[in-house]
Specification:
With 251 residues, this protein is of the alpha/beta class. It has a single domain (8-243), classed as NAD(P)-binding Rossmann-like Domain (Rossmann fold, 3-Layer(aba) Sandwich), CATH 3.40.50. It has helices at residues 17-28, 40-50, 65-79, 102-123, 149-169, 196-207, 218-229, 247-250, and strands at 8-11, 32-37, 56-59, 82-87, 127-136, 175-181, 240-243. Strands 3-2-1-4-5-6-7 form a seven-stranded parallel beta sheet, with helices on both faces. The N and C termini lie far apart (38 Å). The protein binds 1,4-dihydronicotinamide adenine dinucleotide. 1,4-dihydronicotinamide adenine dinucleotide binds at residues 12-13, 15-19, 36, 38, 61-63, 88-92, 111, 136, 138, 181, 183-184, 186-188, 191.
C-alpha cells in the first residue's frame, strides 16, 4: 500500500526545487497534490510544465492573508479536508547588516514567517485528526552565518513555530514538524541577485562546512518530508529533521 494513498496534500512553493521534488514523491505515494502559484503567469507556467503532477494549481501569494484563505477554502470545498500541509514556500537572500532595509526585511518575514502563521491558521478548519503539518526551516537557523541575519532569523522563527504549534495542535491529533535543509541544489541560488562568481564563491565556502562534502538534492529533502507526512512518523511531534550532510551538528 502506498504511504499517502488518496491523502490530500497541499504544498506551497510546489513548482520549484524542494517543493517540486516533494510533490513528485507524494504523488508517487498515491497522494492528491495541490500547490499554489504566486501570480497568473506562474500559474500558467506550472500548469503547462507540471500539469500531470498537480491535481490543482491555485493562485495564492503566501504573503497575502486573503489569498491564503481562498487557497485553503478552495481545497476544502473541493476535497473536504487536508491530510498533509507542507508549508515550504520561502525566499533567501544574504546581505551584510548595513545593507538590510525595510523592503528586504519585510519580504523575508512576510514570505517565510507570515506565510506560515496564516497558512496554518487558514488551513486549520480543514486539518482533521491524523493530519500532518511540515514546515521548511534551514540549517542556518542553528548556525551563525555571516550575512544571513534576516533569513536565519525567519527560519529560527519557523523552528519555534514547529514547536509552539505542535503544543497547540497536538490534542487535535495534528502533528507539526519541520524539515531543515542544508545546502540543496535548487533554483533558489539563482534568485539571490548575485553574480555567478559570487554564487560560486559562496558555494565553495558552504561546501567547506558540509561534512559530506557535497550539496544535497531536493529528492533527499523530499524523502524526509514523506517520512513526516506519512504514518511512519506517527510518534514524531515538534521535531526538526536536518537534511544537511551533517552541517548543523558536525560542521
Ligand atoms: P526555490 O526558489 O526553488 O522554491 C521556492 C518556492 O517558493 C518557489 O516555488 C516560489 O515560487 C515559492 N515562493 C516564494 N515566494 C512566494 C510567495 N510570495 N508566494 C507564493 N510562493 C512563493 O527554492 P528551494 O530551495 O526549493 O526552497 C524551498 C524552501 O527550502 C524555502 O523555504 C527555503 O528557504 C528552504 N531552504 C532551501 C535551501 C537550499 O539550499 N535550497 C536550504 C535551506 C532551506
Amino acid at each position: 500500500m502506498s504511504k499517502l494513498e488518496k491523502k490530500v496534500a497541499v504544498i506551497t512553493g510546489g513548482n520549484s526545487g524542494i517543493g517540486l521534488a516533494t510533490a513528485q514523491t507524494f504523488k508517487n505515494e498515491g497522494a492528491i497534490v495541490v500547490t499554489n502559484a504566486r501570480n497568473q503567469q506562474r500559474l500558467e507556467e506550472t500548469q503547462a510544465d507540471h500539469g500531470d503532477l498537480f491535481d490543482d494549481v491555485i493562485l495564492a501569494d503566501v504573503t497575502k492573508v486573503d489569498q491564503l484563505e481562498s487557497l485553503f477554502n478552495s481545497v476544502g470545498e473541493k476535497y473536504g479536508q487536508i491530510d498533509v500541509l507542507f508549508l515550504n514556500a520561502g525566499i533567501a537572500k544574504f546581505l551584510p547588516i548595513e545593507h538590510v532595509d525595510d523592503g528586504f526585511y519585510n519580504a523575508h518575514f512576510d514570505t517565510n514567517v507570515r506565510g506560515i502563521i496564516f497558512g496554518v491558521q487558514k488551513a486549520l478548519p480543514y486539518l482533521k485528526e491524523g493530519s500532518s503539518i511540515i514546515l521548511t526551516t534551514s540549517v542556518v537557523n542553528q548556525m551563525g552565518m555571516a550575512n544571513s541575519s534576516v533569513y536565519a532569523a525567519t527560519k529560527a522563527a519557523v523552528r519555534s513555530l514547529a514547536q509552539s504549534l505542535s503544543a497547540e495542535l497536538v490534542d487535535r491529533g495534528i502533528r507539526v514538524n519541520a524539515v531543515s535543509p542544508g545546502p540543496i541544489e535548487t533554483p533558489i541560488f539563482g534568485k539571490m541577485e548575485l553574480e555567478q562568481e559570487q554564487i560560486d564563491e559562496m558555494a565553495q565556502g558552504i561546501l567547506g562546512k558540509v561534512p559530506l562534502k557535497r550539496f544535497g538534492t531536493s529528492e533527499e529533502v523530499a524523502k524526509a518530508a514523506l517520512f513526516l507526512a506519512s504514518n511512519d512518523s506517527s510518534f514524531v511531534v515538534g521535531a526538526e529533521i536536518e537534511v544537511d550532510g551533517g552541517m548543523a551538528t558536525l560542521g
